[in-house]
Amino acid sequence: MGSMISISIPPGSLGAKAAAWSLLLLWLMLLPGQGLAESKQVKGLPPPAVLNPAADLWRDIRQRDMATTGTTQVRGVDSGVLINANGDKWRKFRMDQLIPIGGYLLLGMGLFLILFYLIRGKVRIAGGASDRKLPRYTSYERLIHWFIASIFIFLALTGLIILFGRPLLIPIFGKELFSVIASASKEGHNLMGPLFLVALILVFIKFVRRNIYQKGDMSWLLRGGGIIGKKHVPSNFFNMGEKSMFWMLIIVGSVIVASGLVLIFPIFGQGREWMELAHVGHAIGAILMITVIMGHIYIGTIGMEGAIEGMSTGYCDLNWAKEHHDYWASQMEKRGEAISNEAVNRFSDPDTNRSLGRELREAGE
Amino acid sequence: MARMKFYCDPERCIECNACVTACKNENEVPWGVNRRRVVTINDGDDGERSLSVACMHCSDAPCATVCPVDCFYTTQDGVVLHDKDICIGCGYCFYACPFGAPQFPEDGAFATRGKMDKCTFCAGGPEADNSSDEHRKYGSNRLAEGKLPLCAEMCSTKALLAGDSDTISEIYRKRIINRSASVMARGVSYRDASFRAPYNAAGKSSAKE
Amino acid sequence: MIGQFIDGPLWTFSLAVFVIGVVWRIVTILMAGNRPDLSTPRGSASSGAIRTIFSRSVYERTAATRGRLLQIAGYLFHIGLFALLFFAKPHVDFYAERITGFGWATMPHWAFILSAELAFLGLLLLWIHRLLSPVTRLLSDLDDHLGSILVFLVMLTGCLALAQSFEALRLIHLLLAELLLIYFPFSKLMHTFTFVMSRGYTGATMGRKGVNA
């Protein structure tokens, strides 16, 4: 991630330092040839006695090294910078890389999922739905999942409107109407953004323990998570893919939140470079996250039978659990946590049922 | 068609900031925004020069390229303007502009961006010329009255030039020639490049030895 | 055209429905009366009523049936919404112009945004909980869902209109607020006013019995 950003925009002291070093290196390499180049500089004319003093001036004005800034009576961040070269790098990133590549990436992911669905179809529960269920997520877990999900979808939509609105929506709605939509998106995005941080923290605290990589994850990965071939691969409560998605959510999510905060609070004296850098991180992170979450939504809804039940009702089918999360399912079954469908339908609250199941067991039923 | 340009002559600018003040007053620029600023480089050193910078009204303006709502437009005079009714205040033009011309008034929540404000070359905005709406949003429209931007007209040393690029470059070219250093002189020293007799040049050139 | 209708007649109509409806609801409740309590009072009914009106707003650990997060969410939503509604500058300006004729002290803009964030946080959590938990889903009827949706939409459109520079966004916000006002007297949203009465009644009954509950 870090290297990607610095390739796209090398501003700031670090990038400038690196650039200075590489220039120095380049200069050292060219050293023997330099005298030669100078001697045949101007054909037929005598070599200039003094270089144009204005050339130095304009070199200073370019401020390419980012170290020499001018002084000015106008107070403000960066007001002494005459020419901010990073702005152009940022423009190139946004217009030539982010919008086309990001757009095609999202489009490609969508097409891939459609294609995948057409080829693979819905992953059915091989053994069919059983007559028993396992409590999978408590209502609190489901609550924070749907909390982060709703905020994420809102933020993703509004962000995509701002990013792709000009090429895609202005031709449809016209500038005036799109401006209203874009303003709404921007304000909504800014207001809801900080809530994503809250949601992220809640999700992290609740789910981190089950997402630590453990034994069996490697074999799951090596067998492609069961995508290749018909055989299901056993896994723990979360499989390797889910765990990786969790860590992606936490790490990329933190980048997105941190860079987003830099962008919505332009009051801490951060200059344009910081905001450009934050925007790059924010955009790359967001595109990456949306792409992954598209896959997550696919596998959770139309991609797999029985997958969404855990998050919607709190229960999952016993056969589904055995096929996809065998280690966890067999453990739960052994502990007698499986509940009949009727009991689920009667009480349908995993919090109550967990204690209910215990009572039933104790009563010897 | 005319193509409006600013040119600031660093050999003439005396950093009096009159252009900044004139602009702020004429256009009633919001607090926290300066459409024009004077930057001095090598302040106090040998090569000290000052330059007055504002929007350069680029032919291929980066602000217009990155604007997510496409609110920038170039007038027939080559002036880059933006429509504040469409602007959503995202600040992208502020990131992209090399000159720091578009700025946002920090009056929103947590000082988030309001509608961007930038130099209009004293040409107002998309509203009817010199209407009250136009004046409220963009300041005065001097171009419609046949006048040039006030910053340039106020400049006491005529360092800051504004107007049709042909005229501006002609004036500047003459200055350079008179200063005994042609831009075409390809790095020849001021004295050697003089088109005048050397004794004439003494005392008339603003250039250093 | 439609904007003028939303801004003018519909606003007057919805405000009238709201005021008349609320007054009518409260009056009918009061008119229903209650049977005289013939027992000798062991304590003060009025002090019990006042105490209960406030004490019931305080978190009671023993009576908590939901998780701590939802308790917090409840406070965040109600306090945030109250602050937004009565102390946000755009709202106060609107009231001053349309209803009272005078304004009052407003929150700084950052506090306005912060209360909006907190109110949203609370509303989303509570709403999702209402939809997810089988218990609250059983308890909720159409009225509850309509109320949640309307309040959510009013808040959402308000947040989308934060730039305060697009008339269309303001009108959408206003339209939804008007719909909410019209719906208000006929719904459980009346608890905004009646909570005082129900708590007061309980408090008075208990206070008269000399029980601090």
UniProtKB/TrEMBL annotation, chain B:
Gene Ontology MF terms: 4 iron, 4 sulfur cluster binding; electron transfer activity; metal ion binding
Cofactor: [4Fe-4S] cluster
InterPro entries listed in its UniProt record: 4Fe4S_Fe-S-bd, 4Fe4S_Fe_S_CS, 7Fe_ferredoxin, ET_IronSulfur_Cluster-Binding
Gene3D superfamilies: 3.30.70.20
Ranges for domain 4Fe-4S ferredoxin-type: 4-34, 78-107
Keywords: 4Fe-4S, Electron transport, Iron, Iron-sulfur, Metal-binding, Transport
Pfam families documented for this protein: Fer4_11
The protein's name in its UniProt record: Formate dehydrogenase FDH3 subunit beta
Naturally occurring in which organism (per UniProt): Candidatus Thiodiazotropha taylori
Gene from which the chain derives: fdh3B
